Amino acid sequence: MSAQRVRQRPDRQFDPAGNPDDEDGTVDRVQDGGAAYRRDGDHRWRRRIDGEAVPGARDLTLGDLFDPPLRDEVDFPVRLVPRAWASRRPDHPLAWVFEHADLGGRGPIPVPAAEWDRRADQVVAMSAPALHPWNLVGTDGVAALLGVAEATVRAYLAREQMPEPIVRLGRTPVWSRDQIVAWQATRTRVRPPTFTARPAPGPDDVPDPDGAEGELDLEGRGEPSGDVAV
Question: Domains, the chain, ranges and CATH?
Answer without folding.
Answer: 19-128 (no CATH), 130-189 (1.10.1660)
